[in-house]
Amino acid sequence: MPTRPTLIVLGGLPGSGKSTIAKMLARKLALVYVRVDEIEQALLRHRPGVDVGAAGYGIAYAVASANLALGLGVVADCVNPVAASRAGWAAAGRHAAILAVEIICSDPAAHRRRLEQRGADIAGHALPTWADVLALAYEPWPDADLVVDTASNTAAEAVSLIANAVAQLG
Questions:
Q1: Residues β-bridged to residue 139
Q2: Where are the domains of the chain?
Q3: Predicted local distance difference test score (pLDDT) of residue 35
Q4: Is pLDDT at 89 greater than 70 in this prediction?
Q5: What is the mean pLDDT of residues 22-36?
Q6: Distance between CA 30 and CA 37 in Å, rounded?
Q7: 107-145: per-residue pLDDT in tens?
Q8: Residues 79, 19: contact at Cβ < 8 Å?
Q9: Which of 36, 80, 159, 167 has its Cβ near the most Cβ atoms within 10 Å?
Q10: CA 14, CA 162: separation in Å to the nearest integer?
């Protein structure tokens, strides 16, 4: 394990398995769990109709940074669709060992099925549709440290892959 606190940033399209993996990883490694969807939904409850994207990420960066400063490891669960959002995590974790993990589902039929069969686990959260996912401006993430494909790995296998990568951080 690294001597500095660890920031594990999970990103990927909605329905790829990020939240399931992030929650399992937080339990397994005793990490603080920071989910951008939770923050954005809380903002919407207090400021209906406001565009919460940048604000949600900004708050998530601050929460992660504060916990890392306390020496606590953090797993961040977010779509993380663009280079700017990824850079924010790098800044938040500037004093941490960072592992950037892209979660994908390479089987479009399985991805769509998972997306359409899942239920909201945050009160009031409107889940994206398959059309929303296809329309999302998701930039390639060539500098991710690890890419985990949930079409060929179970959530438990994904957690093991990520935990092994964390163990290799210096």
A1: none
A2: 6-167
A3: 97
A4: yes
A5: 98
A6: 21
A7: 999 999 999 999 888 888 889 999 999 999 999 899 999
A8: no
A9: 80
A10: 19
| 3-class secondary structure per residue, the chain | CCCCCEEEEEECCCCCCHHHHHHHHHHHHCCEEEEHHHHHHHHHHHCCCCCCHHHHHHHHHHHHHHHHHCCCCEEEECCCCCHHHHHHHHHHCCCCEEEEEEEECCCHHHHHHHHHHCCCCCCCCCCCCHHHHHHCCCCCCCCCCEEEECCCCCHHHHHHHHHHHHHCCC
Q: Is the pLDDT of residue 49 over 80?
A: no
Mean pLDDT across 56-64: 96
Tell me how far apart the alpha carbons of residues 145 and 127 are, in angstroms, rounded to a whole number: 28
Look at residue 124 in the predicted model and tell me its pLDDT.
Answer: 82
Q: From its phi and psi, is residue 17 left (phi > 0), alpha (psi between -120 and 50) or beta?
A: left
| Beta carbons within 8 Å of 142's beta carbon, 6+ residues apart | none
In CATH terms, 6-167 corresponds, of 1.25.10.10, 3.40.50.2300, 3.40.50.300, 3.40.50.720, to 3.40.50.300
Measure CA 154 to chain center: 17
